[in-house]
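Structure record:
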Amino acid sequence: MPNHVPAAAPGLPAARLDVIHDCLALALDATERPAGYSQTEREARAYIRSALRQTCKLMEARA
């Protein structure tokens, strides 16, 4: 996928970060289960939460 962001403005556009944030939040919601998770599911959800936190930090930096 080509990078359409000019070199003078590195990073993702705010709208793209919003979409990424929403997708990660939906992934956590979709996999939520009251009965508990397997070890693999816990690890996957931890990675999603970490990515969500990092995306939030990027969004704050762009604000």
